[in-house]
């Protein structure tokens, strides 16, 4: 499945009349345009398996192993659900994301999913610390404004299992944290390079572009006119889709040539000083 000229034109038309505003920090930028995610997967060969007239979207990978569900009518706080079915050599895994997670941040994760896994994977806590986040403990960090929290939790019933919990919450009023704004959760088998991709994109200090009346996640978000023009925003989107198409082809070709290549390890390898 490719992104059609009509779909690209609709994306361009939506953004053509919108003046982009640099919006930061990223965890408060709001959901943005979901097509940053869906167009990227479509360019990589994923296909829609749900009714085209339904608001729910389910995209499935060419090998039918991975699926992404977007359900804006979900009765739960998770609007995005990413699943991998188990194979003979790799376990299944699951991740979910709230409705206000920035589409560009989730898109960085799905970009990493369709490309070949990198040979070097940064430790997420080193990434967060370099971005100015405060390390609360060996397994937790919070953003400079204290609103976004990332934690690598060990299962109390099985020390070999650990999962990632990322939450953006209202500042607490007499309590450590207030109501939740959005969340992301990765189970213990989610590939480490995907977790790293999400956290790296989340901690990136570069602003995201939002239109004047786009929904943001919190009133404390900072916005100022962007030096980018609407045409540059659309051109960057198109260039990214072309890159993803080539990366997905290369990854599938590599898999055909090396079908016995062991899967990427799961779980983040932590530095010894933090254990």
Overview of this protein structure:
With 275 residues, the protein is an alpha+beta fold. The protein has one domain. The protein has six helices and 13 strands. The chain has helices at residues 5-16, 35-43, 103-114, 124-130, 192-203, 230-257, and strands at 21-24, 47-48, 57-60, 66-70, 78-84, 93-98, 134-137, 140-142, 148-155, 158-171, 177-186, 208-210, 222-225. A ten-stranded antiparallel beta sheet has the order 2-3-4-5-6-11-10-9-8-7, covered by helices on one side. The chain has a three-stranded antiparallel beta sheet with strand order 12-1-13, with no helix packed on it. Helix 1 packs antiparallel against helix 6, helix 2 packs across helix 6 (230-257) and helix 3 (103-114) packs antiparallel against helix 5. It is globular and about 50 Å long. The termini are far apart. InterPro entries: DUF317_SPDY (IPR005523). Pfam families: SPDY (PF03771). Residues 61-117, 143-208 form the DUF317 domain. This is DUF317 domain-containing protein.
Mean pLDDT metric = 89
Domains, number: 1
Stretches with pLDDT under 50, minimum 5 residues = 261-275
Secondary-structure content class: alpha+beta
Rounded to the nearest angstrom, the radius of gyration is 19 Å
Q: Largest sheet, order of strands side by side? A: 2-3-4-5-6-11-10-9-8-7
Number of H/I helices: 6
What is the 3D form? globular
The helix/strand series, from N terminus to C terminus, equals: HEHEEEEEHHEEEEEHEEH
Number of strand segments:
13
Helix percentage range: 25-40%
- Calculate the terminal CA-CA distance, rounded to whole Å: 45 Å
Sheet-strand content, in percent, reads 25-35%
Sheet with most strands: 10 strands, antiparallel
């Amino acid at each position: 499945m490719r992104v059609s000229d009509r779909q690209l034109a609709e994306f361009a038309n939506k953004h053509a009349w919108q003046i982009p505003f640099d919006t930061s920090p990223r965890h408060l930028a709001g959901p943005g345009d979901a097509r940053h995610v869906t167009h990227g997967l479509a360019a990589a060969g994923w296909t829609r398996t749900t009714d085209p007239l339904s608001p729910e979207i389910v995209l499935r990978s060419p090998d039918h192993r991975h699926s992404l569900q977007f359900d804006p009518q979900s009765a739960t706080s998770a609007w995005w659900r990413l699943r991998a079915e188990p194979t003979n050599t790799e376990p299944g895994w699951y991740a979910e994301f709230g409705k206000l997670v920035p589409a560009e941040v989730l898109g960085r994760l799905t970009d990493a999913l369709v490309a070949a896994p990198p040979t070097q994977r940064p430790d997420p806590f080193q990434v967060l610390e370099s971005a100015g986040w405060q390390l609360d403990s060996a397994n937790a960090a919070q953003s400079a404004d204290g609103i976004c929290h990332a934690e690598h939790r060990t299962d109390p019933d099985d020390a070999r299992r650990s999962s990632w919990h990322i939450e953006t919450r209202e500042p607490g009023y007499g309590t450590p944290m207030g109501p939740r704004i959005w969340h992301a959760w990765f189970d213990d088998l989610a590939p480490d390079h995907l977790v790293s991709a999400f956290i790296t994109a989340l901690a990136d200090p570069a602003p995201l572009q939002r239109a004047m009346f786009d929904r943001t996640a919190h009133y404390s978000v900072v916005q100022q006119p962007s030096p980018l023009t609407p045409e540059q925003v659309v051109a960057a989107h198109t260039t990214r889709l072309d890159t993803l198409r080539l990366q997905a082809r290369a990854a599938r070709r590599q898999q055909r040539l090396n079908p016995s290549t062991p899967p990427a390890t799961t779980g983040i390898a932590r530095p010894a000083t933090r254990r």
